[in-house]
Amino acid sequence: MIRFVLRRVLTAIPIGFIVTLGVFALVFAMPGDPLRELAGDKPIPAAVLAAKRAQFHLDQPFIVQYLLSMKDIFTGNFGTTFAGADIAAQLRLRIPVTLKLTLLANAFQWTLGLLFGIYAGFRRNGLVDRSLLLVTLVLLAVPGLVAYFAAQYVFAVELKWFPVSGVLQGFPHSYLLPALVIGLLGFAGLARLMRTSIVETVNADFVKTARAKGLGEQRVLWKHILPNALLPVVTFIGLDLAGMFGGAIITESIFNLPGLGQFMFQAIKLKEGGVVVLLSTLAFVSFILINLAVDVLYGILDPRVRHV
Amino acid sequence: MRTGEVLLQVEDLSVEFDTPRGTVRAVDGVSWQVRAGETLAILGESGSGKSVSTQALTGILEMPPGRIVSGTAKYRGEDLIAMSVKERRKIVGDRITMVFQDSLSALNPVQSVGKQIAECYRVHRGMSRTDAMRRAAEMLDQVRIPAAAKRVNDYPHEFSGGMRQRVMLAMALALDPDVLIADEPTTALDVTVQAQILELIAELQAERDMGVVLITHDLGVVADVADNVVVMYAGHVVERAATAEALELPMHPYTEGLLGSMPSADLKGQELPTIPGTPPSLRAIPSGCAFRTRCKLAIEQCAHEVPPLLTVAPGRDAACIRRTGSALKEAVR
Predict the structure, then answer these.
(1) DSSP letters along A252-279, please?
(2) Which own/partner pairs from A4-7 qualify as long-range (CB within 8 Å, at least 24 positions apart)?
(3) A94 CB contacts (<8 Å, ≥6 apart)?
(4) Which residue in A has a C-alpha nearest to residue B173's C-alpha?
(5) pTM of the entire structure?
(6) Which chain B residues contact residue A213 at CB under 8 A?
(7) Which of the residues B108, B139, B151 would you substitute to probe the A interface, choosing the one with the greatest number of A C-beta atoms within 10 Å?
(8) For the segment A119-178, what is each residue's pLDDT rounded down to a tens digit?
């Protein structure tokens, strides 16, 4: 087990470098001058510009810029943004916001997805199953952007059930609407996967064996069907959880939640390579950790893929 | 003939399936019985209804789409089909147990074999976890799995095919049942392992004076272990006899055909005879005798009505008007 974890972490290191280098190159390749953009219409003295460039290493060649950024990340010396904000302080403020949003959205998604998926799987072709099929089809067809704006307009602007944007009303009130929309959009896939997985497992031979042993339906369900039907769902949940950060960029920007996603969005707009790479590294590390956790969990659930 | 107590008696069992393209009758008026200490073989090709009949009477058939149309299945006089699910669960899994063909898919892949065997003791006997696990290890030892105490915590995929089938047997015999229904228990195994498993079943059967219903398509297996044989074709019982008699002088042309197509040393160098044609689809069973389209003896009359299962000699029944016409006219069903 420990060897397995170590191996996974070690293989993640070169991948991490390739990913961050790629991200940095993309930011570097974007047109425009970040410092001039920051100054807007105002003229900026050449001396100030040169000093700022030197401060953010913008006068260095690409690879040196990248290596300097990585050095800053690993020494924990995050510095400031182009606009002068302390990045470490920003992270301390923003990480909880994104975590709250992601966890709340996942709580909605898992509760709805597992509940409806399991129920529809066991009562297939029933009313719930049929409606679920229809509802998920609609949800899967709606693009996220449309859903976010529509929900914001209908439930916040018109009906005033939720705050329109920002986090002034605190947790959970300010997070409810975006989390609900993310959860609803994400639940469709999860519920369908859970349902299909159960329908497949119900017909498995070992379920017949369990029935032939004279076990009650509840026992067959909880001890034999579910532990097997959950296996593909665990993989899905892991991938989904890891991908949540990407979704946060859009949601946080639309609902004006000061989280990491919004930070990332601003950094990309300003061509702040250092910040983008820092956030990408953060996302990458969390992705690796979540995947590792899922693999370990999967090994516990399924002895056939247990790691030595 | 065995003279033990009749443990399980199936009478006039018919099972239908509702499919999108209409109803098909998979089992039609099947009757048989098994006594203590007896091995009854149900012989037939796939689709002949041999597995469906046992799954229907034990209540593990998916219903719907399956449906029991008629019949009784009496365990010591109590009808399994008429009783409630709760009552049946006290018998099926305890007094009547089953073994299936493919032990890899028939065992739960994410539970240790010990736990799966222990489950029988825990559910039916209310034993504690540790007691049940100890009994499970003893059971593994009884089916001759080496180092049983260690292997009790292993998972199904860690066993070989033969060993896995032993695990299945251990699970089925854990509660010392009266009747074991073995549904093609050796089909997925190679021949040497097959013989070992059959031998093991016979040994354990003798120890416990248990009735065994052996479902198979292999006439060789029947010849080796069965006391009596029921031959099924397209959902009907076409012949019922003591194994030795059926092998010596088959009554029904289908049994005769099966016997004729068995490879043996005498036929070395010759082409193996086969039964012409294929079994009928259950959607389009020929009128009258289902076998007539493949039968050498078929005459026009065979198409008129389903031949009844008639007694041709004591303990010998066959459903063929060409063979039973002159014999006793007494219908036994």
Answers:
(1) HHHTT--SHHHHHHHHHHTT-HHHHHHH
(2) A4/A295, A4/A307, A4/A308, A5/A292, A5/A296
(3) A258, A259, A260, A262, A263
(4) A213
(5) 0.78
(6) 93, 97, 119-120, 123, 171
(7) B108
(8) 888 888 888 888 888 888 888 888 878 888 888 888 877 787 877 777 777 778 778 888
